[in-house]
Each structure stands twice: as structure tokens, then as C-alpha cells.
Give the backbone structure.
Amino acid sequence: MKTTLLNKVALATSTAALMTVMMGSAHAEPTGYDQLSFQAEVKEEIQNDEVRASLYKKAQATDAKTLATTLNTSINNAMKIAKRYPNVTVTTGQQRTYPRYDKNDKIIGWTGQANIDLKSTDFAATSQLIADLQETLVMDNLNFGVSDVKKDALEQKLMTEASRAFQQQAKNLTRAWDARGYRVVTVNLNTGSNYPRPMYSAMSMKAASADESVPSQSFESGESTISVTANGTIELTK
């Protein structure tokens, strides 16, 4: 009998404790009232450490097979040259082939273009490789940015700073609204980048003559802006 009574008391105590926890959890849920939405942004200028470039070969032929042979030979030779520069990542890019018509809509030939893409943090090697390739290929575009490794490291740092800035703004708003405190309802962290425009494009490039080598170019990579925005909603507690 005594044991049964103790069990009942323990059960009642446990039930009361559970109800207290449940009530506390329910009270901690946002009510939907006295909520403020805002954002905090942090940004940092960073030196570009990566160059990307694209070059292409364009040709015409009376039949598709001859055209493909010309383009493939040119790109294969370019890839062989690129192997001399192990610090530069080289990939084959887009390739397009389309017919040419006469005034009677009859196919009289084919035009095609094949691209090769470069990416590297070694500016000197990339500049020299571009110069070597421009003896047979034409520059399509050249631009600078921040490498993934450097960008990821900075974004991690800025996420922490954006989170702190959001919390500080929340404290300022709590005081401004004469509230006792606040609870966070939602917070989202968003990253962004502002890269400079390409240095030049194919329209401004001049093809070199067959007996003239192309000098390498000194790069000025510039800077990019990396930003992280923390936007969310808090609920004031009175």
C-alpha cells in the first residue's frame, strides 16, 4: 500500500513537471505580435586572385566534315600548348556549327566555332599561355574574380560578422521600442559578390599575323566586393 502511494506521488510529480515543460515550450513560441523584420549587411573588398579567359577558333568549309576536322585540329593543338602550363586549368568550351545558305535557301557551306576556357590563380602563366594561343585563336573574353577557396574563407568570416551585426541591431531595436527583450523568429544569411567587368572582349582584340608572336600582357586584376546579408524577424517581449 505504501509502495503504491509512493508510485502515485511520483507519477503526479512527473506529470506536473511535464506539464510545466510543455507550458514553458508553448510560451516560448512566437505569438505573431510585436514582430520586427530588418537586415544587417557586412561587406569587404578583396583582391582578385583568379583569372578566367575564353578563346575560340572560327572557320568555314563547304562540308561539315572538313569544318569539324579544322576545328578539332585547332583545339587539339591548343590543348597540347596548354599542357606546358600545369598551373592553368584548361577545358574545352562551347562548340557550334551552323549552315550557310544562298539566296535560294540552298546550303552552300558550313560555319563553326570551338572555344577553349582557361582558369588559374597564376597570372603570369595564364598571360603567357594566352599569348601563345592567340597566334591561332581569337580572344573571346577575359575577366577576374576571387577563387573559391579564398571566397569561401571570407564568406565564413563575414557570416559571423553579419550574425553579430544582426544581434546588435536587434538589441538596439529592443531598447528603441522599450521592450524587455526579444526572441529570434527567423534569420537568413545570404552571400553576394560584385565582380568587375571583363577587361576586354573579342571586339577589341586584333589578330596577329602569321609571322608575328603575340606578347604577353601584364594583368591588373582589381578588387571584388564580397558581402553577406543577415535578414530576419524578431519578436519583442514586453
Remarks:
- The first strand starts at residue 35 and ends at 47.
- The helical segments are 2-28, 64-82, 123-133, 148-176.
- Residues 1-27, 198-211 have pLDDT under 50 and may be disordered.
